[in-house]
Amino acid sequence: MPAINRSACGKAILLGEHAVVHAQPAIAIPLSSKRVNVSVEPQIIAPTGKIRVIAPLLHLDQDFASLPENHPVFQSVRLTLAELKVLQTPSCNLHISSTLPFNSGLGSSAALAVAITRALSEFLGHPLDLETVNKIAFKCETYVHGNPSGIDNTVITYEKPLLFQKGKTMQTIQPGRSFSFVLADSGIRKSTWMTVARLGKDLEDGPAWVQPKLEEIGGLAIQGMQALLDGDAKSLAQAINRNQSILEALDLSCPELDTLIKKALEAGALAAKLTGSGKGGHMLALVENDALQSVLDTLQKASGGKAFYTSLDPEEKI
Fold this sequence. Notes:
Blueprint (H helix, E strand, L loop, with lengths): L3 E12 L10 E17 L8 E5 L4 E4 L8 H12 L8 E7 L9 H16 L6 H16 L5 H8 L3 E3 L6 E2 L6 E7 L6 H14 L1 H24 L2 H17 L5 H12 L4 E5 L6 E6 L1 H14 L4 E6 L6
Parallel strand pairs: 3-5
Antiparallel strand pairs: 1-2, 2-5, 2-6, 3-4, 6-7, 8-10, 8-11, 9-10
């Protein structure tokens, strides 16, 4: 039985984080150059049913069954085996590596679930379709984040930019032109579960103040989708900057993110905002090509070398 290698991309929320948890639309884009990689190889001499997880970046080198129940690796393996109705698993090693930063707002737990599900199901001889992979990854996210929207696992599974809204059919987005972004890490780690739960409590305690802001964010996602379709960078920039203002009003930013956003705008970015659950993690800047190097250099310096460039491009027509 040969080794199987599969991967999954990261993601960035362009518009709509937090509001998407509360049934508003949001836009997410795949980060195809930042990936979680999983290799599954057989253990010929090990006892049947032993799955060893080897992931130095996660400080793991142990049997999957000994992992905590809410660990994304444990749930990815458990749910994949359950989906395939596997009663006796061939012994194997799961090697996990990544160019995608973990715990930084770029969908690492969902990418981990998608990559493991893809690799393990194919190793077992029954590769799962995209819809089933997405379903398993969402279940994994509920163990990790408590009340996920489903946007992370969906954009990562299908690896396409999309408009996502709970309970509605997702819409893939074909941008009318190429758009460039620079992302930078604030260096602050904050639990997605905690920030989602805190905003949920704020909404419960003050619906008259919070709900209109969530609805405005949802409207900005719709504006952003149209801007992407039209290739309208100015309209997209307006939506991104306004979205950040609302996130700041909801106390979801932090000084480190605010500093990076300010520096990006001063270096020539059209717009900049936090991306993900906030209070830490990454920020994202929309840039035109003539300002790309300036913004990238500025954010590399400001983040201690933890900035990178990505683009959203129209699909080539065959």
